[in-house]
Amino acid sequence: MSDQQRVITLRVMIQVLFFIVVVPFLPLMISWRWNWWEAWVYALLSILGFVVSRMLAARRHPDLIAERSRFMGHENTKFWYRRLTALIMPFALLVPLIAGLDERLGWSPGFGWPVKILVLVIILAGYALSSYALIENRFFSGTVRIQTERGHHVVSSGPYRWVRHPGYAGGLLTYLVTPLLLDSAWAFLPAVLITVLTVIRTALEDRTLQAELDGYREYAGRVHYRLLPGIW
User: Fold this and answer.
1) Exposed (0-12), middle (13-18) or buried (19+): which is 70, by Cβ within 10 Å?
2) Could you give the CA distance from residue 34 to residue 28 in angstroms, rounded to a whole number?
3) Does any domain span residue 78?
4) How far apart (Å, rounded) are the C-alpha atoms in residues 84 and 144?
5) How many distinct structural domains can be found in the chain?
6) Tens digits of per-residue pLDDT, 132-165?
7) DSSP-assigned letters across all residues of 58-96
8) Domain extent at residue 197
9) In the chain, what is the straight-line distance between the N-terminal and C-terminal CA atoms, in Å?
10) pLDDT digits (tens, 9 = 90+) for 64-79
11) Is residue 230 part of a domain?
12) How many Å apart are CA 190 and CA 98, to the nearest integer?
């Protein structure tokens, strides 16, 4: 293993530990309300959703996890993807951070049980859709590039029969309702910004795939919607 590969691996490990282990517990750590059950549910769902989906994906496509672990180490990653990712990651951090401050300082009044139950259903649906996309698509890289060395081709099975970017669609479902689970109206601000940036990223990625991936333009002619059936 080269020095560059070691650096990339170490960097990825630190990022995974931070975003998958530390960030989900930010609401609890910042608010210091250890009996806040919604924050515990948020943390456990975040961690389990990541771990279970990666285990299932690795079982079906052993080389996929290695591909995703080098998401910023590929030379042919699109420059706009790097820029958008650099913007999205801080906003993703702000959602649980603001929710923790909101709980500690009492900025928002909170939401009732019917809302919480509906939100939990939506979050589970979001994780299920994203995980299904990851498991179904051997080329579900952590970046936007044409994976010629891996025989990159169009995947049109599973959730890709409904929308062209089901992984993003599932992620947006989760982000948009998380503030409701954590009783934080203020956390909607970064969640909405994440949504806007993800829509931009989806549009640019879809344009790239139509221009550079054989068969994708024909696939887009059959599956008309990128994220939300009937709308876009």
Assistant:
1) middle
2) 6
3) yes
4) 11
5) 1
6) 999 999 999 878 888 888 888 999 999 999 999 9
7) HHH-HHHHHHHHTTTT-TTS-HHHHHHHHHHHHHHHHHH
8) 3-222
9) 44
10) 877 777 665 566 678 8
11) no
12) 9
Q: How far is CA 193 from the centre of its chain?
A: 14
Q: Which pTM value belongs to this model? A: 0.88
Q: Which residues in 154-181 are b (16+ Cβ under 10 Å) and which e?
A: bbbeebbeebbbbbbbbbbbbbbbbbbb
29: tokens are 């750590």
CATH number at 81 reads 1.20.120.1630
Sign, CA dihedral 18-19-25-30, equals positive
| Structural tokens at position 35 | 């009996």
Q: Residue 227: what are its φ and ψ, rounded to 5°?
A: -125, -45
Q: How far is CA 25 from the centre of its chain?
A: 17
> Tokens 């992984």 — which residue?
167
Alpha carbons 8 and 30: distance in angstroms, whole number: 30
Residue 95 lies in a domain: yes
Q: What is the DSSP string of the chain?
A: --HHHHHHHHHHHHHHHIIIIIGGGHHHHHH--TT-HHHHHHHHHHHHHHHHHHHHHHHH-HHHHHHHHTTTT-TTS-HHHHHHHHHHHHHHHHHHHHHHHHHHHT-S----HHHHHHHHHHHHHHHHHHHHHHHH-TT--SS----GGGT-----SGGGGT-S-HHHHHHHHHHHHHHHHTT-STTHHHHHHHHHHHHHHHHHHHHHHHHHSTTHHHHHHHS--SSSTTT-
Q: What pLDDT is recorded for position 9?
A: 61
**Mean pLDDT of the chain, nearest integer:** 89
